[in-house]
Amino acid sequence: MKTTHVSDCEPGEPDARAAWTRTRRRLERGRGRASGAPGRPRLRAFDVAVRCTDVALRTLGLYERGHRNALDLQLVRYEHRFPDLPAALDGYRVLHLSDLHLDGMLEVVDRACALVRDEPVDLAVYTGDYREGYRGPCPEALAALQQIMTAVDSRAGHVGVLGNHDGSEMVAPLEALGLRLLLNESIVLARGDARVVIAGTDDPHDYPAAADADLLQRVGARVGPGDFYLALIHSAELYDAAAAAGVDLYLCGHTHGGQIATPRGRPLITHLRRGHAFASGLWRYGAMIGVTHRGVGTSGLPVRFYTRGEVVVHTLRRGE
Questions:
Q1: 3-class secondary structure for the chain?
Q2: pLDDT tens digits for 97-142?
Q3: Which of 43, 52, 225, 288 is the most exposed place for a label (fewest CB within 10 A)?
Q4: pTM for this prediction
């Protein structure tokens, strides 16, 4: 499969990545970051809640059960039908991994590798949060990610975006592993006479000032009748901008499906400011199909209740 990179620079800005890096680093220093920075009251309150939950689960004897649940990854398959899907893309398979948080629960790596190893796909995509922390070196997470990527059989390689846990310093080491990051950028993958147009923004939850939502519209203006438009975004919070831009399939994560949910699977906490209806699994907004990945790993506590981690394979089909 032939791959072509399409640059998406703002007028007057010859290097979009340089502009993104300046903005992201400024936000990471604490000026303008919406939430999640170490030391902020919001994060401290969340840390207190995590510690209290940890004590409660251990006191009730539920911690080990929750940890076993977190390690019980499942393979989920979706088949999406699009009336105008180019014939050359009928049967196109996309592996989707999100919220791996690998250094927070390394035991999940072997299970993830086992699930992806026998699933050859046309493309592998990753929608952020490769690590558990926010800053500093994360060699364990990178080594674990490399192990998973090596197990994946992807004809067009690996494409991803950053999450709210992924600092700008992770771009170089992630791309050194062979992960093509989209930092408010787009690429085009050609298959026969059809094209898969992929747009990826920075995380819109913690870094809204660095996430270029207008990118979706600019790329959408170039999408032709023989193209399929795929958006990779860490959270579902740009759902309306993506639908307005003509995105066909919106893949995201961030919420872990709640990680701890009600017995009916309703997330207790989503960490979304908007798009709460799209916090888990398959959804639709207008003509656009979306899927919010429930995460490979966990964050805060390595436990799950009434939700399971997952490895997702999407198959594109032509038809109603």
A1: CEEEEECCCCCCCCCHHHHHHHHHHHHHCCCCCCCCCCCCHHHHHHHHHHHHHHHHHHHCCCHHHHHHHHHCCEEEEEEEEECCCCHHHCCCEEEEECCCCHHHCCCHHHHHHHHHHCCCECEEEEECCCCCCCCCCCHHHHHHHHHHHHHCCECCCEEEECCCCCCHHHHHHHHHCCEEECCCEEEEEEECCEEEEEEECCCCCCCCCCCCCHHHHHHHCCCCCCEEEEEECCCHHHHHHHHHCCCCEEEECCCHHHCEECCCCCECCCCCCCCHHHCCEEEEECCEEEEECCCCCCCCCCCCECCCCEEEEEEEEECC
A2: 999 999 999 999 999 999 999 999 999 999 999 999 998 899 999 9
A3: 225
A4: 0.92
